[in-house]
Structure formats: structure tokens, C-alpha cells
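Hi team,

As requested, here is the filled-out complex form for the coenzyme A run. I kept the field names the same as last time so the parser does not choke. Let me know if anything looks off before we queue the next batch.

— J.
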Amino acid sequence: MLNKTFTPFPVLTTERFTLRQPAMDDEQEIFTLRSEREINKYLNRKPAYTIDDARNFINNVNENTDKGNSLYWAITFSDQNISVGTICIFSLSGENNKCEIGYELLTNFQGKGIMKEAVEEVIDYAFNTIKVQKIEAFSHRDNQGSIKLLEKLSFRNSNVADKTDPDLVCYHLTN
Ligand SMILES: CC(C)(COP(=O)(O)OP(=O)(O)OC[C@H]1O[C@@H](n2cnc3c(N)ncnc32)[C@H](O)[C@@H]1OP(=O)(O)O)[C@@H](O)C(=O)NCCC(=O)NCCS
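And here is what came back:
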């Protein structure tokens, strides 16, 4: 049985970062994350076209958190409240005791070890608090940043083809 009670919101901290619930004040950063071409190069998702799209997105992720469907964190430096990226846990399956993980950073903050530090904390939360036994991550096969990150975090290539998109590779980490 998975623990999907996300109220109060589980704020996580690492050496440098605070992972907190997204708020309307994050609208500009969420808009950039979901619209900038370079960040979305390997992501097959509906982009944000307007600030309103970003606002609706923030409302949706917070509703899904309240329902226990998924968890979406804004990553901030602990001494500043401005978000530099996000991490989410979704497709929580009590039947298979597993979930998926996704992440993204604003371009200026990539390549500085930020996501490794943040994802490590989320993995710990997923295994030890939500109690999943397996975390999956899907990445475009050319997304070297994401694949290198997953391998650094000891995820293994599942060697299964995604039925909907042959360019996606599946990685997994088990507890
Ligand atoms: C994928 C992403 C989150 C990686 O985060 P990051 O904070 O830049 O990664 P880190 O700095 O923690 O790096 C982890 C490792 O990956 C390597 N790496 C990071 N970006 C890389 C790139 N573009 N190419 C090759 N290696 C890369 C780092 O060098 C590091 O390895 P090292 O410790 O041996 O040097 C970030 O590049 C990003 O937001 N990309 C756009 C959104 C995206 O594609 N999300 C993933 C969806 S599946």
C-alpha cells in the first residue's frame, strides 16, 4: 500500500536546495520551462504558449497533489525563493508499487550538479515515505544530459521499447 497523503505538502531540503510546492509566483519560471525550445527539445509534451497556460499548469499540478495522484516540486536555492527547475513523481501505481520521475531545469542552471542533488532527495522520499519499490524514468535516447544523470543515480536501462515512441528509452531504479 503506497502512502499518497501529500497534505501538508512534503517540503524537502538538500545541502543547497529547498524543494517546495509550486505557487502562482512561479508562473514566469514555469512558463519558461514549458516554452523554451532548448529545454523542451527532447520532451514530447504540449508547450505553454501564454502565462495563462503556465498558471493553469500550476493549478493542475497542485490539484493532482491534493488528490494523491502525483507530486510536483519547484526547486529553489535555499537562500532564495526563486524556482530554477522542477521535479515530479507521477503514475503512482499501488498495484505495481512503482512511480515515474521527471525533471527539468532552466538553461542557466543546467550542468551544475543541481538535478543530481535534488533527484537524490526525491528518490529517498519515494522509497522511504511513499514506499514505492521501483522508480521509472523515460528519456529520449539522444538526451545525453538526462541519460547521464540517470546513470549517475544508478538507474539501469530497462531495455524495453516504448510502444508509443520508439525514441524513448526506459530506465529504472529499484529499492
Ligand atoms: C536533464 C537535466 C535535468 C540534467 O540536469 P543537470 O543538473 O544539468 O545535471 P547534473 O549537472 O546533475 O549532471 C549529472 C551528470 O550528467 C552530465 N550532464 C549534464 N548535462 C549533460 C549534457 N547536456 N550532456 C552530457 N552530459 C551531461 C553531467 O556532466 C553530470 O556528470 P558528471 O558528474 O560526470 O559531470 C537538464 O539538462 C535539463 O533540465 N534538461 C532539459 C529538460 C530535460 O530534458 N529533462 C529530462 C526529461 S527526461
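Two things worth flagging: Residues 114-130 form the longest helix (17 residues). Helices lie at 27-35, 37-40, 51-66, 114-130, 144-152.

Thanks,
J.
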